[in-house]
Write a structure and sequence with these properties.
- The chain is an all-alpha fold and 446 residues long.
- The protein folds into 2 domains: 311 residues, no CATH class; 59 residues, no CATH class.
- It is 59% helix and 3% strand.
- The chain contains 15 helices and 4 strands.
- The strands form 2 sheets. Strands 1-2 form a two-stranded antiparallel sheet. Strands 3-4 form a two-stranded antiparallel ribbon.
- Keywords: Cell membrane, Membrane, NAD, Oxidoreductase, Quinone, Translocase, Transmembrane, Transmembrane helix, Ubiquinone.
């Protein structure tokens, strides 16, 4: 029987359908997901370079393979063959394990993403999904939190102030934006009635959650950029102030693993947005209404891939368009804007769902509540603009007449006139006095 043959089977898999596949089919799914992620990373690198080159009136990769398609593979081979440099003072065990801790959770997160409905593979009915769990979405949040440990440990073990600052920035950034991301999921759970990715896709048969829960979708779009540490929220890797951030001291395959984890997270966040808000593998409304077989067989894989790459292109377009924000602006957006707004939106959604379950007409209630929420948000923005970015509390009075200490109250910085390496002073021999030439003596220089 052909691998792509489709025998009659339930098109919408359920949570109870998982865990019954033979071992060879489970292994094939894991291998297919691994290969898919590696190829997606290679293609994402090529698409990113070509798109940004077009935006900046450059050529982009065009040497390795047709249209430069093999440029990502060439870069991977180059990284693998480069010398692996390990600084002398690092904690070697943690230094080596940190890239692994960052890359492995990125692969695990994709196992719960549904690619399509139930199909037949060599006579076995199986869902186009690695596996599913009653709390599948929480697995993605847990794995993204584990990946941050790799970044923090990389910065700490490098024994470099730049790497340490990059790791601390990443931990603070992920804490603030992951909370807001989790809050954006709550409204989806309330409407779908489940945390299973299969159940969430099945709940979007009629209307996508990006339409019903537009504020949650917008909050997720912002938080996924903060979660992925990419422009405009790539503060842990800020070249202007941190050289390279948490991976400053890394090279060769260790650096390649951080690079791989970043692009896999890019694909995972895009796939999660597709699953939770854009109907997953289901075809858009015009196609699904005209074509009855659009959501059956292997065709849903095409719709899923289109949505996935649209999100990846969105990431790339933002990188080529927006500048990097300041770190205080980044944290202020996460803690003072996204979190309070998400909490208020969850209360509104929960109230509407409760009233609807009681049989009340919630359209007018929802409209009035949305107007009230809009007024509160507008008043908050007007208040913040009126303050003009002033800090809370009085500013300290300057004391003394001397020059201000650049290191006061901040990270210890060695004096600018003293040579140093990683915060340790370096002794430089003083120049030996030279004997003046007769010409210099005659001219009065010496």
């Amino acid at each position: 029987m052909s691998l792509l043959a489709y025998a009659p089977a339930p098109s919408d898999p359920t949570l109870s359908a998982f865990g019954k596949d033979p071992w060879w089919l489970i292994g094939g799914k894991v291998l297919a997901i691994f290969v898919f992620l590696v190829l997606t990373v290679l293609m994402s690198m090529w698409v990113e370079r070509r798109v940004i080159s077009r935006m900046q009136l450059r050529v982009g990769p065009n040497r390795c393979g047709p249209f430069g398609l093999l440029q990502g593979l060439a870069d991977g081979v180059k990284l693998a063959l480069k010398e692996d440099i390990v600084p002398r003072q690092v904690d070697k065990i943690v230094f080596v394990l940190a890239p692994v801790v960052s890359a492995v959770p990125a692969f695990i997160s994709f196992i719960i993403i549904p690619f399509g409905p139930t199909v037949s593979v060599f006579g076995h009915h199986t869902a186009l999904q690695g596996t599913d769990l009653p709390v599948a979405v929480l697995l993605v949040l847990a794995m993204s939190s584990m990946g941050v440990y790799g970044i923090v440990l990389a910065g700490w073990s490098s024994m470099s102030p730049y790497s340490l600052l990059g790791g601390l920035r990443s931990s603070a950034q992920v804490i603030s934006y992951e909370i807001a991301m989790g809050l954006s999921f709550v409204a989806v759970f309330l409407y779908a009635g489940t945390m299973s990715t299969t159940g969430i896709v099945n709940a979007q048969t009629d209307t996508w959650f990006a339409v019903l829960l537009l504020p949650s979708f917008l909050v997720y779009v912002v938080t996924m950029m903060g979660e992925s540490n990419r422009i405009p929220f790539d503060l842990p890797e800020g070249e202007g102030e941190l050289v390279g951030g948490f991976h400053t001291e890394y090279s060769s395959l260790k650096f390649a693993m951080f690079f791989l984890a970043e692009y896999i997270n890019l694909a995972t966040l895009s796939a999660l947005a597709t699953t939770l808000f854009l109907g997953g593998w289901r075809a858009p409304a015009p196609i699904s209404t005209v074509w009855a077989g659009a959501n059956s067989g292997w065709w849903p894989v095409l719709w899923f891939m289109v949505k996935l790459w649209l999100f990846i292109f969105f990431f790339i377009w933002l990188r080529g368009s927006l500048p990097r924000v300041r770190y205080d602006q980044l944290m202020k957006l996460g803690w003072k804007v996204l979190m309070p707004f998400s909490l208020g939106w969850i209360l509104l959604v929960a109230t509407v769902r409760a009233l609807k379950n009681e049989g009340y007409a919630v359209q007018s209630i929802f409209l009035y509540a949305a107007i009230a929420a809009g007024l509160v948000i507008a008043a908050t923005v007007a208040w913040e603009m009126g303050r003009g970015g002033k800090k809370d509390g009085p500013e300290p009075e300057p004391t003394g007449t001397g020059a201000a200490d650049a290191a006061a109250g901040g990270f210890p910085v060695p004096p600018m006139d003293a040579p140093h390496y990683h915060g340790r002073p370096v002794s430089v021999p003083a120049p030996r006095p030279t004997e003046a030439s007769p010409k210099e003596v005659a001219s009065g220089i010496h």
